[in-house]
Amino acid sequence: MTPVTAESDLTIPIRVTGSRTARRRYVPTMPASDSEVVAAMRVNGALDLDDHQPDETFEWQKAAAKNQLGVDVDAIAELQTRLFAERRRAVLIVLQAMDAGGKDGVIRSVLTGINPAGITVHSFGVPTEEEAEHDFLWRHHVRCPRRGIIGVFNRSHYEAVLVERVKELVAPEVWRPRYAHIRDFERALTGAGTTVVKLHLNVSYEEQGRRLQDRIDTPEEQWKFRLGDLDDRKLWTAYREAYTDALRETSTADAAWYVVPGDPKWVRNLAVAKILRQTLEQLDPQYPEPEADLTGLKVT
Ligand code: AMP
Ligand code: MG
Fold first, then answer.
1. Residue 128: which CATH number?
2. Considering its fold, how many domains does the chain have in total?
3. Is 253 within a domain?
4. pTM
5. Does ligand 1 come within 6 angstroms of the Cβ of 126?
6. Residue 266 and residue 58: Cα distance in Å, rounded?
7. Which tens digit of pLDDT belongs to each residue from 74-121?
8. Fewer CB atoms < 10 Å away: N or C end of the chain?
């Protein structure tokens, strides 16, 4: 699958606002529909991460967001029940973000209400010795969701072109060909009935600083903090570059990336819910036919 390079017809018009850095901002001329907002987050080949503001609100109102999230979560739960009953297809959600970017928060807030029997969540950390002795996709492939299941990767195979590149754990000759390997891998998943939805939670440098400081200052949060998080923070610019390349190289028609505003948590959660709901609605899973005509059958 080649990356989507053309401006897709889903792309909504974006007006350039006259800031010093001439960043483009999402300025809807009228309240945008959910599908327009989802399209605005979707990555095409021409990605510039600066086009995606971490504090974007899509003109949503915070006061109404909680209710809206509830409505979307209910819809997702119903669609998941159908996906589970149908047992023909799967969904893989890939979550990538910098430390404190909200990956755990999304899982907690958006995937709540889903029948736990129909979901798997796996967090990928530093590869174990056994994992490191295999090809980089091995540990991920075996964790992909089976039919009927929504699988979540909290960090993913993309770390192989993010942390491994930025911290120079492998040489460019090793990480560069991985974009193609990832595209092929995801195409194989798609071909086997797994829809791959990839979410980059786009938190700003300033907001990450506040959240890490919070973790340090709050005893109940300290367990989330590692001194190494500060080393990664120092490499922020290199990570931005690596994210940009990864998203550009691997956002395909069948396995798209979405850049989700990461700073206001309520926007982030609602945006993820909208993406997931739309993805499931497009799949439109159906309850299977009963094995026989049950009309009039009485349990005795
Ligand atoms: P966290 O998700 O913050 O609990 O931490 C997981 C850690 O594992 C992060 O620091 C990641 O950078 C690291 N990690 C994940 N995948 C890899 C990988 N393929 N190689 C090296 N480090 C990794
Ligand atoms: Mg961490």
1. 3.40.50.300
2. 1
3. yes
4. 0.90
5. yes
6. 12
7. 999 999 999 999 999 999 999 999 999 999 999 999 998 889 999 999
8. C
